[in-house]
Amino acid sequence: MLGQLEMPTLADATGEEREAGVTWHSGLPVNWKGGGSSQAPLDTFLKRALDVVGALVGICALGPLLIIVAVMIKASSPGPVLFRQRREGLNGRAFDALKFRSMREADCDASGVTQTRINDPRVTPVGRFIRKTSIDELPQLFNVLRGDMSLVGPRPHVANMLAGGRLYRDLVPYYGERLAMRPGITGWAQANGLRGPTRDPRLARERIDHDIAYIQNFSIWLDLKIIVMTIVREFFTGNGH
């Protein structure tokens, strides 16, 4: 579950981080002097069990919604219901992430490098709704069952992901450390509102810092907290996207 992890060093940190040694990100610390997470075998088993049970429950409970959305997509624009996009998984291993198709088939970007814009003309009316509510991500429950993803973890990015007009890896020197755990449908960054296009360099870096904070502080209880926070944000506060 957990890859060989070398945590960010002070040489990679900002001035504030070099001085403090520890920074806090929505209540979780990042130790910039090292001390990465070490996941016990029991934690590995419990996390995978939570993933399988949670994904099965989600698929069964949301089955009618998944069918309705599939019919809406098929009726509103020609093309497949699902969209597959290569993403980086655990230790950088590539896999096909599943999403409901939200764009016209001819405009779908398999590379994922071109990020969506506000009122993006490529997005269909149905696609706009499912993206706003994050329903487009629900097929990734099947990725969780396959073991490509987890319910909770850093969000899977495409290779050569851009942030602030630069390669994410160039903007954040320790970017690759987020690949030490399986990517998740949601994560600490997303539960705290850091999601969507990564055009602001400061927010892009903060998103990675949240990923590192999650990895360093991982526990099953933290996973459960993130799941609850995500459900509340998506379905009860209207702050999903």
From TrEMBL:
Protein family membership: Belongs to the bacterial sugar transferase family.
InterPro entries (UniProt xref): Bact_transf
Organism in which the protein naturally occurs: Devosia subaequoris
Designated name of the protein: Lipopolysaccharide/colanic/teichoic acid biosynthesis glycosyltransferase
TM regions (residue ranges): 52-73
Residue stretches making up the Bacterial sugar transferase domain: 47-233
One Pfam match: Bac_transf
Alphabetically ordered keywords of this record: Exopolysaccharide synthesis, Membrane, Transferase, Transmembrane, Transmembrane helix
GO biological process, one term: colanic acid biosynthetic process
